[in-house]
Amino acid sequence: MVNTTVKIGSLELANPVMPASGTFAEGMAQIIDINRLGAIVTKTITSDKRQGNPPPRIAEFRNSTLFSIGIPSKGADYYIEETVTFYRQYTPPLVASISADSIDQFGELAAKISVPGVQAIEANISCPNLKKNGQAFGMDAEATYQVVRAMKAATQVPIWPKMTPNAANIVEIALAAQEAGADAIVVSNALLAMAIDVDTFLPKVANVMGGITGPAMKPILLRMAHQCAQAVDIPVIGCGGIESAEDAIEYLLAGASAVQVGTANFVSPNTMLQVINDIIAFCERRDISHVSELVGAMRHHEPIRFEGVNSF
Amino acid sequence: MVNTTVKIGSLELANPVMPASGTFAEGMAQIIDINRLGAIVTKTITSDKRQGNPPPRIAEFRNSTLFSIGIPSKGADYYIEETVTFYRQYTPPLVASISADSIDQFGELAAKISVPGVQAIEANISCPNLKKNGQAFGMDAEATYQVVRAMKAATQVPIWPKMTPNAANIVEIALAAQEAGADAIVVSNALLAMAIDVDTFLPKVANVMGGITGPAMKPILLRMAHQCAQAVDIPVIGCGGIESAEDAIEYLLAGASAVQVGTANFVSPNTMLQVINDIIAFCERRDISHVSELVGAMRHHEPIRFEGVNSF
Amino acid sequence: MKIETTFIADNSEWASQCSRQPDKLHFPITENPARILSNAWVNAEYKHMVVAGDAASLAAQPGQFFHLKCPGTEVDQPYLRRPMSLYGVNPSAGTVEFLYKVQGMGTRGLATLAEGDCLDMLGPLGRGFEIPDTTRHVLMVARGVGLATLTPLASAAIALGAKVTAMLSARSPELIMSKERLTGAGADVIAVSDTEGNSAVPELEALIRRLHAQTPVDFMTTCGSNRLLKLLQSLSKELGVTGQIAMEQHMGCAVGMCYACVRPFRQSADSEELSYRRVCWDGPVFPLEEALTW
Amino acid sequence: MKIETTFIADNSEWASQCSRQPDKLHFPITENPARILSNAWVNAEYKHMVVAGDAASLAAQPGQFFHLKCPGTEVDQPYLRRPMSLYGVNPSAGTVEFLYKVQGMGTRGLATLAEGDCLDMLGPLGRGFEIPDTTRHVLMVARGVGLATLTPLASAAIALGAKVTAMLSARSPELIMSKERLTGAGADVIAVSDTEGNSAVPELEALIRRLHAQTPVDFMTTCGSNRLLKLLQSLSKELGVTGQIAMEQHMGCAVGMCYACVRPFRQSADSEELSYRRVCWDGPVFPLEEALTW
Ligand SMILES: Cc1cc2nc3c(=O)[nH]c(=O)nc-3n(C[C@H](O)[C@H](O)[C@H](O)COP(=O)(O)OP(=O)(O)OC[C@H]3O[C@@H](n4cnc5c(N)ncnc54)[C@H](O)[C@@H]3O)c2cc1C
Ligand SMILES: Cc1cc2nc3c(=O)[nH]c(=O)nc-3n(C[C@H](O)[C@H](O)[C@H](O)COP(=O)(O)OP(=O)(O)OC[C@H]3O[C@@H](n4cnc5c(N)ncnc54)[C@H](O)[C@@H]3O)c2cc1C
Ligand SMILES: Cc1cc2nc3c(=O)[nH]c(=O)nc-3n(C[C@H](O)[C@H](O)[C@H](O)COP(=O)(O)O)c2cc1C
Ligand SMILES: Cc1cc2nc3c(=O)[nH]c(=O)nc-3n(C[C@H](O)[C@H](O)[C@H](O)COP(=O)(O)O)c2cc1C
Ligand code: FES
Ligand code: FES
Fold first, then answer.
1. Is 0.90 surpassed by the pTM of this model?
2. What is the DSSP code (8-state) at residue D45?
3. Domain that holds residue C88
């Protein structure tokens, strides 16, 4: 029997696999047994109602997708009344994801949705579409610090800021989040990208730019998760391009304590359950009794042995 | 007859297609007619001799590659005596690429290699492997400004700094380069990435991190080229993930005046010639008489027509 | 909506051969590796595919669709699934049918499937047509792909006791499909085409008015075409006849999660207030009067 | 090295069917869509492939290799090419041969090729073996894949008037390949295997010493195996016999451009100074005494 539990701060998850915000919703419960997930993470909401970006919102590449959704939101009241109520029927902890236009509003919204049933709050400080050119709070260490501080001051519920990979200094930002009291960080959201249809000369998503997601992005986002995991002491939740147990294990080896599956849920709604099953099988095959043994277990190449000869 | 010439500052190229630094060398002349290229760009050199990173240096993904080469260099003297002499047999302008450890050294090396035959110098301020964690000059607008200034002061040869996509504020850095007198900018080098072998727990390249290149990266690097082209007045040379004429045209539509082909040269040494031929065919099909008409010709989606109804 | 279940999804089972039909009865939507029974060309552009459906897919309703994982080839690797309307379902024979136009990477991949191959299909999805029980005469106006979507509605309406008139429009008579199937189900079929010169909107309008004068239409449906939508919207308003339209949009998840597939709709007939709705989850079938032409 | 040419590469030609052999004679290395003549299993692990080569590839020398674009499938898409040694070339028959182990994504793709299919091959590449003209007795010690690389050297050496002794080592006798081909070319073949228990290094060493005592060896070659390299290095030093080794490394471009394929080498025999060399362009064949064991 492989022990699959992981601790994300004060929260214990039955296993390290959960959906990425914006790639999971109530519909999933009609396809798979969502009680088997490590946690449930909902789409980012704002306090007010929003419609999101104009269509076309999606383009497909060979191994990735470009989404420009924006943050369509039914608002905080709907979330508390409908969404939380729905997920309270299920056992995995519910993680709400929120976004706001100002530091104060981040705090206010965090306070407002800290209702029974919400067991952690992801701070989407990184949504690449919301702000012009993707410049969001998460591009800046100081703003990240302020957002997390405001949320921590407003609620007892654990706060998980989600890093943006569009920031150059992601380690600095992760450290700022930790300093401000973050209980874990999610690494990361989607890189800004674009594509143009060479027949029509039109951008493939109406908003011109969107977030690129899917397996092709894994090596970049894995690198960021690794850099952050090396720098911070709080748990890192890896996210980006995971579609198999091997992908999830790669993130664990790189230092992530848990993982989020995004776009792969669209390709196959069974992905997360498959990942959980296959992580267990992997551990059994290799006599690993606790999944957490994989966390940060990456080894290093030995320097080339020059057999008595001095290296250059 | 389609006119394929493009102007990069004072330099006129027969066509907009050239190799990306580090993906082209003398060997190519044994496979294709390199006189058909718009320009020749050589691998980055340093003033001194260097060995580069330990192997394994390469890992392959479905649609991209991870390279951790470092900057192996035979030094400036070898470059002037051997490399320049070799390429002077050919007609396309030769673009040298240089890297250095300090701003002064960038200037000195630029001066040193400003020999007849070198018609532009690319400043590789972005190599993700050379400096720890990829922190290079190109991550910072001020350092970029200084490097370009030092080079411009040292030589009359046009200077093309090459942006790093690992910088968050690429537009700011492009503007700094322009301000310092850059004649064009190349957008861009490779994103830092990593991969771990889940069987051995070892990183796939000995250096742990390397640059990820190839078609899967195009939407990200295209976005950066577009952002830079919108911000600067000097020509932008697009680079990243180009393997077909359609890819090259996408960069032109996004605002690039010319393009560089990198990893695709490894998959097929004929790629660049194919791209040139197919750009011409595309223009013929669409009655475009000058390739430069494509530059920046991206259109925009019209806002949804709400037919008399007020928009929300 | 909570699904009562003690069932633990076993994905090794799901991922295995398509000959096995995993017991997923507890879930109304399944990701089901279905066996291809046939996949034949009906004309130069369209193929008709019949698959062995599992229990969930055999419960599909007219207007619903499936999200199909299209096989890749050496050159084409369609990353996302492709939405396809239910063209027919036969619970007793255990079959589900699709009628699709081969046009891009995904549908080219679908076209390569042969009898005995596996098709990973997710569904049934979306909200199908809702015809009031009292309906006496359904008018279906379809062109091209829209036919696939509307065809199963005919039998459903006839089962309700309604008369069905299906107006089929196409570029040329050869591209008129489903005529036999519709006639067989008991529908009156009127076929028009561009080459015959009787498919222009004014002619269709005159035709519909005549039809309505003979046997009043009390439910109108269409699918896909902007000019047909415009026509039916104005007629439905003028004649006071309700109706529905099946819409299309590029999709990510097809189960209401990603919000990629939105289109703008009026809050209600004639309302100036617009909002985006998800074609996959709030539709693909919407009230005729709330749809926006484009 | 400047290639004299007025030839303008026409890539539409290159990209077209493999039945056409574009005129690329002016370039010593070509990216050539070659037609597969046969591609058969020789045992459970290895396949032997024969292709119709163009003029450039028919000039390949022993020790050189080609960089092969391996076909993809729905699941596998090998992005980069795969290096394969020349196993045989017959300019008059117009054929080039490969012997390869099916082990990963790329070679699995190669294994799917059938007679008449197209294989995009880039080559010939690298520096092959250089046997001094005065060589009288060549010793080749090969195991596994190394065999493919060394085999064509036998005929070349025999053509020079040298005697060739080929020691073939494998896990089991069934995996010994090329015995007939080598014997046919006029080489003496000594086959050893792990299951027969005569392939251990000390036994090979004794064998080589005996051989050398009988007919002095004046050129030694091996390929791939670290323990064989060690053995030959110490013997070549002790016996004062020169030699070469063919090395492997993961490759990007295979034409000396990317520097992915480096290995550390001594500047010269016994030198403490090391530097990286490109296996693809500076090799793959290197002086035995400059190679580093690993
Ligand atoms: C609810 C619904 C039901 C449909 N039913 C049918 C049907 O029964 N028969 C039929 O022939 N077609 C139907 N379509 C259209 C069908 O989904 C597209 O023809 C198909 O996705 C094209 O994929 P492709 O890869 O071959 O084409 P490409 O043009 O290469 O597709 C590129 C991308 O655009 C998307 N796309 C292209 N056209 C459409 C479209 N019209 N709607 C949605 N996405 C599109 C694809 O899914 C893909 O992501 C339906 C669409 C929807 C939304
Ligand atoms: C100069 C040279 C000549 C060779 N000649 C032969 C030959 O004649 N017959 C034969 O069977 N094999 C030969 N090899 C080894 C052959 O290239 C590998 O077996 C092959 O690349 C494996 O590819 P794969 O996708 O099937 O395996 P995978 O293990 O899936 O390959 C993964 C990656 O590693 C690389 N790789 C794996 N093994 C090797 C290796 N040994 N050398 C270089 N790259 C490797 C692949 O190219 C690929 O990029 C030669 C290698 C070199 C360098
Ligand atoms: C359609 C879509 C919508 C998304 N919406 C959100 C969102 O609302 N909030 C958020 O933090 N991330 C959002 N993301 C980003 C994902 O949570 C995730 O970080 C990203 O997709 C990378 O993971 P992946 O490669 O597994 O998809 C969205 C991604 C997609 C594809
Ligand atoms: C093997 C390899 C070596 C490279 N070396 C250099 C280099 O020396 N200097 C440089 O500026 N860029 C170097 N690059 C980056 C490329 O020039 C180019 O910016 C990058 O590969 C993106 O383009 P691509 O996707 O077309 O490959 C190298 C890339 C590769 C793959
Ligand atoms: S396709 Fe994802 S919400 Fe409709
Ligand atoms: S493989 Fe590129 S230099 Fe050897």
1. yes
2. S
3. 30-125
